[in-house]
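I had to read the description of the data format several times before I understood it. For illustration, here is how one protein appears when written out as sequence plus structure tokens:
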Amino acid sequence: MNRKTVLHLLFLLALSVALVYLTKSFLMALGIMMLLLLIDALLRQYDNKRRREWEEKRLQEMMEEKEKEEKTRTDKEE
């Protein structure tokens, strides 16, 4: 486990303890934590999808640029 994962888990643990303390009800705190974990998972999924799309776009741009350079190089040789 990397440091970011450990910090994330510690944050969630502290948040769950604080929710139990504030609500004075384990079940209500559990429900709130479930909603927060769902939101967290959805945000991570959205971020990963967006990052993957950006990387694919950047890779495609780099390949097109490389093809242009190769075409220019072959044109100069002729």
